[in-house]
Please model this.
Amino acid sequence: MNENTISLEENITATERGSEGPAPAFGAPSVFTVRGLGVHYGGLPALRDVSLDVQPREITAIIGPSGCGKSTLIRCFNRMNDLIPGAEVSGEVLYHGEDIYAAGVDPVTVRRRIGMVFQRPNPFPKSVYDNVAFGARINGYKGDMDELVERSLRRAALWDEVKSKLRKSALALSGGQQQRLCIARAIAVEPDVILMDEPASALDPIATVRIEDLMQELKQEYSIVIVTHNMQQAARVSDRTAFLYTEVDEAAGQRWGILVEFGDTSDIFTRPRDKRTEDYVSGRFG
Amino acid sequence: MRETFHRELERLDQDVVRMGALVEAAIENATLALAENDLELARKVMDGDDAIDDLFLDIEKRALAMLAQQQPVAGDLRLIVAILRCVNDLERSGDLAFNIASVVRKDLEIITLKPVSALVYELGHASRRLLSKSLDAWADKDIALAEEMDQLDDEIDDLYARLFKELFALSRETTFEVAMNLVLVGRYFERIADHAVNMAERIRYFVTGNEEHLG
Model:
């Protein structure tokens, strides 16, 4: 670990200390400050000039039609794009004021603070218990593992359903339970932010509502960014919404995502400023 | 399930009752100010109308956001629609209380005629009672109570008709200005009662899903 990594951790600790009081007032320091963010895959643009702020203990939703760069954007928040060959990120992503793309920042450290839950539940082929304990063990967790597993499962609203089958395979759980297990696994390493990329799109309506309820619980303690193609879901669960849209250059045969509008979710769904947002949320295209 | 949404809907529902209590107090004070020619109390009623309007706008904004964001259906949808209509009735009643208070003037005591003043006072009380009953019915979503409202409204219509008669009988003993103001005040109270009856309709709509008009 080098200097940058250490200062990132220090910065986070300072922020956490500062947020023990009442809920952050408007204008509180952002969790993420994104400025002029762009992503290219193999030299082709995928996302251009995105600027937005993610506030602490809020749910920020990213919506937009297929191919507008929603997943590309959310993957910038914990450097998941690093794992894609040929991906280049430009612009700034500041996490508690610190550039996570600065030379010397360890992406693994970033991902420990910024957890992620994916579209398809992806538990390890291990027991329920081992799934939750996995990250903590790797991190050399010294505390009471049973207690950590129980606490994480309770926070993920799954404990009552699995407490009698902790040693059973996680793969035997239902899809909705598996997704909540993945959330429990993500929060077991005590992250600060949880990124969710279409967390409910593979689930039935009841399991979806459970995940949405859970998100409301989780935002008391974590900041959440969610990508969803279900804009009603964004409307129901989020505090702020970013609407992305695809721009096309026919001549060059290129298309890329841009941020059209970012604001309070109630404004986006009752009085959007941009005609394209209005057309999208009212179902006129997309 | 959907606990956050249902908690917020409950808060919205309670705020309707809170708004109703402000309007009820405004009507009571306006009646009193008129009866006692109390300018200070009348001013208080008029100043208080801003708080009612603010609450109205706040409830309306939150209800609209819920419609846009929460996709309410069935009882939840009916409740939000009923709330939106109900706060309209309350806001209007608040304005009418403002109008009544604005009739109170230093240089012109409106209620100088004994038989008429008693009637105006009675009208004021009756319309406030009707609103109060309507708010109780709203708070408990009590459809039986809501249905009693029709009868009470008839009493108010009778009082209003009697006010007219008395004024004609006493036309030689008063000025045109006083008579006009009394007719207006009577009309305002009668309108307040109509809004209270409308609220009862909203309750019936929420509980049964039927759009029936009480009158």
Residues 116 and 128 of chain B are 18 Å apart (CA to CA). Chain B touches chain A at residues 1-5, 64-65, 68-71 (CB under 8 Å).
